[in-house]
Amino acid sequence: MSSPRFYALDALRGLAIALMILVNTPGSWQHVYSPLLHAAWDGFTFADIVFPTFLFVVGAAMFYSLKNTELSKDSVWRVSIRALKLIGVGVLLNYVPFTVELAELRLPGVLQRIGLAYWVAALLVLSIKRRYLPFIAVALVALYWLALVLGGGEQPYSLEHNLVRQWDLAIFGSAHLYQGFGLAFDPEGLLSTLPCVVAVLIGFGTASALQGRQHQDALRLLLILGVSLLLLAGLWQIFWPVNKALWSGSYLALSNGLILLILAVLVWCIDVKGWTKAAQPLKVYGTNPLFIYVLAWLWSVLIGQLIFIPTEAGSVSLYQLGFELLALVFPAKLASLVFAVLHVIGFWYLSLLLYRRNIIIKL
Fold first, then answer.
1. Residue 318 domain-assigned (yes or no)
2. CB contact at 8 A, 97 and 306
3. In a domain, 311, yes or no
4. In this structure, which of 84, 91, 150, 252 has its CB flanked by the most CB atoms within 10 Å?
5. Using an 8 Å Cβ cutoff, are 14 and 281 in contact?
6. Does 90 reside within a domain?
7. Which residues partner with 42 through β-bridges?
C-alpha cells in the first residue's frame, strides 16, 4: 500500500497564517478580547499558540524540502541565504515606514527569529543523523534552562533579571530592543531562540514520523504525543512557569502538545473523513504564508501610519477610521474583532488569487 499524503499539514499551515493576522490586526489594541492578547508574563492564552504553530509548520515544510538533501557547501549556502533573507526582511519591516531613527531601530523580531531558528534547525538536520535529533532537541532545552537558572540570580524567570534580557542588552543595547514591557526586553531575544529551534525540529520530526504511516496510525500517534506533551507541561510548569516571552520549556511543551492535538483533529477531519473541500480555504491560505505575513504587516503600517483621512476634529488614520466605523455598529471589542476578521478574509482572497494563478512567492 502506498504512503498517503497528509493534507492536514497544508491546512495547519493556512490556519497558522490566518490566526497570526487575526491576533496581529485588531481594530484597536485598547479593545481586544483577552484570549486574543498574549499573556502579560507567566500564563497562556489562545494568542500564545500562534507563533509556535508558525514555527511548527516551518519545520514540517523543511522536512519535505530537505528530506533528500545531504550536507554540502551548496545545501549550507542555500539554507543560509534563505535565513539571511528572512532576517533582513524582518529588520526592514521594523524600519518601515522609514521614520524610525537607526539608533532606536528594533533588531530582533518575528521573521528574524524564524530565520535564525530555521537556519540552526536546518544545519542540525543536514549534519546529524535523524535518529539523534530528538536527543539534540532535549539537550538544547536543558541547556537553555540551565543557562537561565545559573545566569538569572535569585529571580531567573523575572522580567528584569532573566538572562535573555541580559544577553540582548549586552549584544544589541537597550535602544534596539522591544520596549512594550515597560523596560527594554525583547520577546524575540537571541538566547530564547534556542527553544524555537526545538519547535522547528518538532515540526520536522512530526512530518517525518507521519511519512509512510496510514492515516489511522498517524492519528493515534499524534494523540499520544500531544497528550504526552501536555502532561509534561503540567509537571514542568511547577518548576519552570509557562511563559511565552521567555519561551520556557513548559510553554514549548504546552504549545506543541496543543498543536499536535489540533493537527490530529485536522487529520481526522480531512485525511480520515475526507472533508477536503471544507479544508480547501485553509490550504489556499497556506500557499504563500510568509509573503502574506509581510504584506499584512506593510498594509497595517500603510493604513495606520501613512494614510490619514481629514475629519472635523482634524485627521484620523485609515486604520482607526475603519475601526471607528465598525464601532458605530458593534460594541468596541466586537468591532475590533470584526476588523481583524475582515483582514483575515481580505488576505485570504489575495491568497486565492495567487493560488489560482499558481504563483508561489518565497522569501
1. no
2. yes
3. no
4. 252
5. yes
6. yes
7. 243
Query: pLDDT tens digit string along 295-334?
Result: 999 999 999 999 999 887 788 999 999 999 999 999 999 9
What whole-number distance in Å separates Cα of residue 74 and Cα of residue 237? 42
Q: How far apart are CA 58 and CA 41, in angstroms?
A: 26
Is residue 242 situated within a structural domain? yes
Dihedrals phi, psi of 237, to nearest 5 degrees: -65, -15
For the record, the C-alpha cell of 31 comes out as 479593545
Taking the C-alpha atoms of residue 17 and residue 325, their distance in angstroms, rounded to an integer, is: 26
Question: pTM of the predicted model, to two decimals?
Answer: 0.94
Residue whose C-alpha cell reads 535569585 in the numeric block: 154
pLDDT tens digits, one per residue of 176-212:
999 999 999 999 999 999 999 999 999 999 999 998 8
Say how many C-beta atoms besides its own lie within 10 A of residue 41's C-beta: 14
Check if the beta carbon of residue 315 is closer than 8 Å to that of residue 15: no
Please give the residue range of the domain that contains residue 152: 28-277
Placement of cell 483577552 in the chain:
34
Where do we find the cell 534580557? 165
Instruction: Look up residue 260 and give its amino acid.
Output: L
Give the integer Cα–Cα distance in Å for 16 and 19. 5
Residues 6+ apart with CB under 8 A from 46: 35, 36
Cell readout for 298 is: 506593510
